[in-house]
Design a protein that fits this description.
The protein contains twelve helices and 13 strands. With 361 residues, the chain is an alpha/beta fold.
């Protein structure tokens, strides 16, 4: 088995230079770095990760706590995190907190005890126990998708990355209003999540921008789950004056809403127009094809890794919150006709100055 001494001899450099290339502990000239990498490849050298971690106090591993098993949206985020971590030479340890505050606290501790260099977490609706643990142990952490507000005296600095939520939701509501709908229902997510709060805010802005009143009876919580969304949809459709159009707050709730509509024998968009927050792989295969907001999930994951690595390199750097734009994917579930010759979605990027009606100041 090849050693670092063998790699150094093959590349014509010192053992220290090989170490610097492997551990990124000092800048190395590009041609020298390449010579070392070529030697590693030629000799089949495998670094001793355990020994290196004892020297550097780093394991080059990242802990990721997201509900990727139960939510396809987080699966795409996982892909972005994994690809970016691998690109930077980091391994990934995954745990599913199941959106449960107590379980979240346990899995984060387990990841930390495995000596990960830092954590990436999609926090639950009640992250107090999580924040206390991270603060007590000064664990470098990036929150993704859902934002948290740490107390002013909290000892840690948390970077955060998420998609825009309010403005894209307002765009969906405004689009349905432009189609002539005056009673637009919302199947909202789990109370307490920043995504839920921001999307409800966007829903209200969208109504105001279209000159429509806010009616709290047209908002039902699907708790970010399919089964709860079935009940929420049923409640909206059971109103004395039910909505003629509806927006769902995430992809999982869209599935629940569609189930209820099917059980009631209702047709989309003939009986009820439907738009959804979160695009997903099969949204374009349904009939009708779903008009949706597409989040940059893989980029959210990749950005979380970049923020974490920058935090590891500069622990005292001011905390940052990064928001990424979404895209409006115009299909036919909203009641619009299929454009001639269209074979797929028509994504339109959304920025902070979206053409949606109303101001989101």
């Amino acid at each position: 088995m090849a050693t670092m001494v063998d790699v150094a001899a093959h590349a014509g450099v010192s053992v220290a230079t090989v170490s610097h290339v492997l551990n990124d502990t000092r800048p190395v000239l590009p041609h020298t770095r390449q010579a070392v990498l070529d030697a590693i490849d030629a000799l089949g050298y495998t670094p001793n990760t355990l020994a290196r971690s004892l020297v550097t106090a780093r394991t080059r591993s990242i802990g990721l706590a997201v509900s990727a098993i139960s939510n396809p949206y987080f699966t795409e985020i996982l892909q972005g995190v994994e690809a970016s971590a691998l690109e930077h030479g980091y391994g990934l340890l995954l745990a599913d907190p199941h959106d449960d505050p107590q379980h979240e606290r346990k899995v984060v501790q387990l990841l930390h005890e495995r000596r990960v260099d830092g954590l990436i977490v999609a926090p639950s609706a009640d992250p107090d126990a999580l924040l206390r643990y991270l603060g007590q142990h000064h664990v470098p952490t990036v929150f993704l998708d859902r934002l948290v507000e740490a107390p002013a005296d909290h000892p840690s600095r948390f970077d955060q990355v998420c998609a825009e939520n309010a403005e894209p939701m307002a765009r969906l509501v405004g689009h349905l209003a432009e189609r002539g709908h005056r009673r637009i229902g919302l199947v909202a997510g789990l109370p307490g999540l920043s995504t839920t709060n921001e999307r409800i805010s966007g829903y209200r802005h969208g109504l105001a921008g279209a000159g429509l009143p806010y009616d709290e009876r047209l908002v039902a919580h699907g708790d970010s789950q399919a089964t709860a969304a079935e009940r929420a949809t049923d409640a909206l459709l059971s109103l004395a004056a039910p909505p003629t159009a509806m927006v769902t707050g995430n992809n999982t709730m869209t599935i629940g809403a569609l189930r209820t509509l099917r059980e009631r024998g209702l047709s989309v968009p003939d009986d009820l127009a439907l738009c959804c927050f979160d695009d997903f792989a099969w949204a374009d295969l349904l009939t009708p094809r779903l008009t949706a907001i597409s989040q940059p999930s893989k980029e959210i994951g990749a950005q979380a890794v970049r923020l974490l690595l920058e935090r590891l390199a500069a622990p005292d750097h001011p905390a940052r919150t990064v928001r990424l734009p979404c895209a409006f994917v115009h299909r036919t579930s909203c009641g619009c006709a299929e454009p001639p010759g269209t074979s797929g979605a028509s994504p339109t990027a959304l920025s902070q100055k979206s053409p949606a009606k109303g101001s989101l100041s």
